[in-house]
Amino acid sequence: LSLPLQAKMSRPVQARRLEGIDKNIWVEFVKLAATYSKVNLGQGFPDFPPPDFLKEALERALSREKYMLHQYTRVFGHPPLVKILAQLFGKLLGRDLDPLTNVMVTVGAYQALFCCFQAFIDEGDEVIIIEPFFDCYQPMVKMAGGTPVFVPLRPKPSKDRKLMSSADWQLDPAELASKFSKRTKAIVLNSPNNPLGKVFSRGELELIAELCVKHDVLCISDEVYEWLVYDGKEHVRIASLQGMWDRTVIIGSAGKTFSATGWKVGWTVGPDQLLQHVRTVHQNSVYHCATIAQEAVGQGFQRELELYGKPESYFVQLPKELQQKRDWLVQSLDAVGMKPIIPEGTYFLVADISEFKSDVPDVPNSEEPYDYRFAKWMVKNKGIAAIPLSAFYCEAHKNNYNHFVRFCFAKEEATLKAANDILQKWKQEKTSP
Amino acid sequence: MFFPSRIFCCLGIRTYQLRADVLSRSIRLSASATMAFRHKNTRRIEGLDSNVWVEFTKVAADPSIVNLGQGLPDISPPTYVKEELAKAAAVDRLNQYTRGFGHPSLVKALAQVYERVCGRKIDPLTDILVTVGAYGSLFSTIQALIEEGDEVIIIEPFYDCYEPMVRMAGAKPVFIPLRCKNDGNSASSADWVLDPAELANKFNSKTKAIILNTPHNPIGKVFTREELQIIADLCIKHDTLCISDEVYEWLVYKGNKHIKIATLPGMWERTITIGSAGKTYSVTGWKLGWSIGPQNLIKHLQVVHQNTLYTCPTPLQEALAQALWIDYRRMDDPGCYFHSLSQELESKRDRMARLLQEAGLKPVVPDGGYFMIVDVSTLNVDLSDVDEKQPYDYKFVKWMITSKKLSAIPLSAFFGPETKKKFEKYIRFCFIKKDSTLDAAEVILKNWNKQTA
């Protein structure tokens, strides 16, 4: 070989679609938690196991080998799973759903989001994202060549209560309306909302729905926390509002529904005229999803459909348990001077850490938002992992709400107790010289 | 509605009233509903909606049909593989998210196995990405490294997803066919070769990558060192990438050796090598695959991965890691599944070839993989009365499914638009099937001429 051997490709190798999307908060914060944390309330996953009936469903599937469970199943979703999803969501939406055309299974809700953006967002399209937002929406919109347009939830402090609720964070209707332009292709709705825990009310959803209809805009509705709703609140599905079924893709997650985030089974539900394009992306990117996980999740749903509304239903028990944990953590944080915002849903809560600023002095002209520095300091020095709230804001708005951190409370009692002990000790250190 | 109504406890303060003017609102909504629904597909997926598998797996789903079409085993995966999954799922924390780019124990196991095979150090954290099947690796690689303005060379026949994936990335596929050496009289996959001059002509300054598939689906060709060197020389000369789909790497039959193009001089730095748990362990339904390459390329695949699905399922990755360790420890043993599977398949290959020959056909005996292609012209099945505007082989397979209860895949699905017509008489059979399935196929083939259509 007479040519000089290149050590690397000599020209730029990566595609332009990767520009600006290489950073990811989880890569950094998961590593920090793994290295330093004694109590991990950071990344959103339960430290308790999935329910027994789900584990048993998997064991049964493995031991019986009913079908060829270790081989490919139907591309758009394992038949027993899409059938039960169509049944369940049909009931919830008050509609007849076809399992083959109105449901598609994905590798987690994450992949469902990816398929939606790739299916519907072209270069130049605008996508409205409500802040604070689950961080992947922005890079996914960018990767599809779209332009994210941000509109914040704004806190309205209530004078008659000590602690805020996630319901106190609201969209300004006029501000929201101003974000819709003729280039707006879609709005991403996440209710219950990660990280705040806000459960959008029917009235708030109707406002969004009217704008979608008026401007002929799609709604990508991330409802992964649909069952985690507290204090008797109702999770209203925007697709059930007038004019919305035809323009909404609903996204759900077995990981969140059944406390099994490691199974990575999600789904999209919507009209065939939209799902057909989501299917095209899916068949050209991932193709099949793992069969066994789908089989077990299908059985889990079968059980839940039979027990729907009954006290033994996991959809009743899980929110009940998590509400207690929420209240526990709220109390814990409040007692030490962190100001939690009581979430109406999800297993996250956000707390104002302004009282603890003296521990982590502000650095003028710092590149990093204050809460990033605080969260890093806290995990290294106190062993509690949490996520800075500004991670859920676009670059331009990162400093607007930079004195909050997000805690995950889907944790065993022992974990929450350990967190409480650390927090109490921290408070004592602050008050005594 | 299904559930009883509830009394809602609103914690927040409403900042606006529901509009009382319901009538005018409903008029506005119905006017909007008559607006033309403008939400069509994005440009990137234009024309990519049809898919041969979606069409043919539907048709062959009937259990009375002997299914030699889609490439999935009906043999059982090894017991220890299934056992490892049961063990993994029983561990609580293995039911939650793991490391995004690949479960730690899995990337470590992969690094060990491939260090052994490649003879070079592989960093499990920077040189490997675990994906949802090899399919996911192909997608991540193409999305990471290919874009509008690029050309990508695809060798025909090709695993059908390469073309739509390249198009979805906005790039132009440039096809080059494997040509049969002996004027169409082929007994072996080794007869199908690239013309070096023709190949060299396909490379230009826009060429970003070439996709290589060895062992090859559908022909079963195992590229020789000399053939790979020709490709490597061109990649280096034109500074292009090589995307090497090696999912059938362990399925290589006597007299043949699987060579990794990434091990040729100058190639590690520009090659992404793709592997598959589904094909390695006969567990296509696990959908785990991997990309291995230099950090400066893999890091871009990792960026795609973190923006598409983030993590792969944990218990499946853990089980795969344990299975790999078991086989890594006995890699020099014939009992190692990497070797024993190809032995098992070789006899099935020989049997399949015999059955087709006895039916008067001339199968192309593959040197690797678990597919076999055959020219069905000698069967003289007249389908001119079938109205559908599809290639002959599509019509033939559909006819064979309904009238003979035997399924295969039409080969023209694996060709680009210009070459499709030349291979209309070929179909592909999959032989990773249990004995009873091959017995049933034998009966059908033996009785082929006895029945009239």
UniProtKB/TrEMBL annotation, chain A:
Keywords carried by this UniProt record: Aminotransferase, Lyase, Pyridoxal phosphate, Transferase
Q: Which reaction does it catalyse?
A: an S-substituted L-cysteine + H2O = a thiol + pyruvate + NH4(+); L-kynurenine + 2-oxoglutarate = kynurenate + L-glutamate + H2O
What are the Aminotransferase class I/classII large domain coordinates in residue numbering? 38-419
Q: Which cofactor does it need?
A: pyridoxal 5'-phosphate
User: What are the GO BP annotations of this UniProt entry?
Assistant: kynurenine metabolic process
Cite the annotated pathway.
Amino-acid degradation; L-kynurenine degradation; kynurenate from L-kynurenine: step 1/2
This entry carries the following GO cellular component terms, namely: mitochondrion
What Pfam families does the record point to? Aminotran_1_2
Q: Name one GO molecular function term.
A: kynurenine-oxoglutarate transaminase activity
Question: Family, per the entry?
Answer: Belongs to the class-I pyridoxal-phosphate-dependent aminotransferase family.
Subunit structure, interactors included: Homodimer.
The protein depicted here goes by the name KAT1 transaminase
UniProt source species:
Oreotrochilus melanogaster
TrEMBL record, chain B:
**Record-level Gene Ontology MF annotations:** cysteine-S-conjugate beta-lyase activity; kynurenine-glyoxylate transaminase activity; kynurenine-oxoglutarate transaminase activity; pyridoxal phosphate binding
What is the role of the protein in this entry?
A: Catalyzes the irreversible transamination of the L-tryptophan metabolite L-kynurenine to form kynurenic acid (KA), an intermediate in the tryptophan catabolic pathway which is also a broad spectrum antagonist of the three ionotropic excitatory amino acid receptors among others. May catalyze the beta-elimination of S-conjugates and Se-conjugates of L-(seleno)cysteine, resulting in the cleavage of the C-S or C-Se bond.
Oligomer status and interactors: Homodimer.
The protein's name: Kynurenine--oxoglutarate transaminase 3
Cofactor(s) named in the record: pyridoxal 5'-phosphate
Pathway field of the UniProt record reads: Amino-acid degradation; L-kynurenine degradation; kynurenate from L-kynurenine: step 1/2
Q: Which keywords does this chain's UniProt record carry? A: Aminotransferase, Lyase, Pyridoxal phosphate, Transferase
Q: Which PANTHER family match?
A: FI04487P, KYNURENINE--OXOGLUTARATE TRANSAMINASE 3
- Protein family membership: Belongs to the class-I pyridoxal-phosphate-dependent aminotransferase family.
Q: What is the lineage of its organism?
A: Eukaryota, Metazoa, Chordata, Craniata, Vertebrata
The protein's annotated catalytic reaction(s) are:
L-kynurenine + glyoxylate = kynurenate + glycine + H2O; an S-substituted L-cysteine + H2O = a thiol + pyruvate + NH4(+); 3-hydroxy-L-kynurenine + glyoxylate = xanthurenate + glycine + H2O; L-kynurenine + 2-oxoglutarate = kynurenate + L-glutamate + H2O
Q: Which Pfam families match?
A: Aminotran_1_2 (PF00155)
- What is one cellular component GO term in this UniProt entry? mitochondrion
What region holds the Aminotransferase class I/classII large domain?
65-431
One of the GO biological process terms: L-kynurenine catabolic process
